Amino acid sequence: MTSNGVWTGARILSRGHVEQFNREGLTIGVDYRPSSIPRATEDARLDRFVGVLKAGGSEVAVVQDIQSERWVKVIWCVGRKEAWWSLFSKK
After folding, report:
1. Where are the domains of the chain?
2. How far is residue 16 from each of residues 21, 34, 76, 84, 88, measured CA to CA in Å?
3. pTM
């Protein structure tokens, strides 16, 4: 199973105004859960998919441990949630 996380850069200009300043970045890898599909097959499928994405101009980072990368994204987003809410909520 292929899994991924998408990152994009943004900055807060003022209350209620955000600027996205760069392209999205995709982190992708195989989630090697117990499966009847051999790892070599999963890796070949991932390589083929990444090739298609790169041919289309996408920036792709392939990682071996996608579970850890997904947790990094979750923790980062949860930590930012309070900051975003304080800036964009009506007081």
Report:
1. 2-88
2. 16, 45, 21, 10, 5
3. 0.60
